[in-house]
Amino acid sequence: MHITTYLQPERTYLPCTGVGKHINNILLNLAKRQGFDISLLVAHEYLNSDRQLDPRTPLQNFELRTYPYKKLLSERLWKFIDLPKMDKFIGKTDCLYSPVAEYIPIDKNIPTIVTMHDMHTIEPDLPWSNSSSHKWQRLKTKIWIAKAIDKTDCICTVSDYSKQRIVELLNVKPEKISVVGNGVDTAFFEIAKIDNKYLQAPISEPYAIVIGGLRYKKGGYHVIEVAKELALRKSPLKILIIGSSEPELVNIANTLDNIVLLGMVDDSQLPELVRMASSLLFLSLYEGFGIPMLEAMAAGTPAVVSNKGALPDVGSSAAIVVEPKNAATIADILSNLDRDPQLHYQYEQLGRERTHEFTWDRCVDRLVDVFHQYS
């Protein structure tokens, strides 16, 4: 079976976000399956002088099918006027698959499958839902997404929560949605087998780790409030921040001695940084899945997560679920996880048991079932 996959290359550059991890791991693992051939449909502008993709993407060696139009302009036209048609660029294929929520117009009678990771652009009750920019984004999204739903054979998504929100917000029939899920890189499972005494911590003090930077939508302000609580208690616990952060929150963080901003780190470094943490602090205000939570669990690090979006559902009883505004309670939990080996071990075991369900191979199994169902 030949699958033509629409690619937004910049989302796959390492290090990448959860959506990028999904794209990379799904395609790399699908390419190993017998009976499947994959080509990538990309805008010509992404090719270098050797007609190859940027080496920052692990998908560089896939077969390429290019189109001559600018990606951004094309995506806008696809959404609102159903042009330009892409039939002559996708080649002879059995299925047109997009691992992101991007509708590609074609006239060919072949199955089309898209992936909607979450519904944050049209959620009505998020802290930023009443901003003018979000209202405008919500209006635009509702216009084009109705077209995508109507002309797409199947919608894949990453969690039962996201499926439920797609059904409720877009009035999609549940049987048109398949939960493919997300997985955890094997490096996080492997690092859990190594005794911490053989690993190198980035700082001498104990720390809770935050992945995703200090950003308002990721609960960055609440992380800062937790840091203030820990400082008031003269706790030795630091908060280590991985990822890019918003300047305003960085300015506040720089006034606190117990926040350490590491910025972006190589993916190869992340498992050890997570493993050496006494806990993961993940106070995101909306997630369609929450890969960092499962990465921490797989590494044997207890996860303290917000009660928002898909996090309580995906983490289940293996995660410690909190209200992000309750800084004092969260500070208590982080301190207890650091000081109480028995409590830490309890959640370490629960997390490892939970994450065995989440492998990229299982995700690809479910996606293969979708391809066979519609092709």
Structure description:
The structure is a single chain. Helix 1 (18-30) links the parallel strand 1 and strand 2 (37-43). The protein is of the alpha/beta class. The chain is built from 14 helices and 13 strands. The mean pLDDT is 95.
Gist of the model:
The protein folds into 2 domains: 2-183 and 359-374, Rossmann fold (3-Layer(aba) Sandwich), CATH 3.40.50.2000; 186-355, Glycogen Phosphorylase B (Rossmann fold, 3-Layer(aba) Sandwich), CATH 3.40.50. It has helices at residues 18-30, 71-81, 87-90, 132-151, 160-170, 186-191, 220-232, 247-253, 270-275, 291-298, 311-315, 327-339, 341-355, 360-374; strands at residues 2-6, 37-43, 63-67, 95-98, 112-115, 154-157, 177-179, 207-211, 238-242, 259-263, 279-282, 303-306, 320-322.
Features:
375 residues; single chain; Rossmann fold; 13 strands; 7-stranded parallel sheet; alpha/beta; 6-stranded parallel sheet; 14 helices; 2 domains
Low-pLDDT stretches are none
- How would you describe the oligomerization state of the chains in this entry? single chain
Domain tally: 2
Number of helices: 14
**Most strands sheet:** 7 strands, parallel
- The chain-level structural class is alpha/beta
Give the H and E element order. EHEEHHEEHEHEHEHEHEHEHEHEHHH
Helix content: 25-40%
Could you give the order of strands across the largest sheet?
3-2-1-4-5-6-7
Instruction: Calculate Rg over CA atoms.
Output: 21 Å
The global form is globular
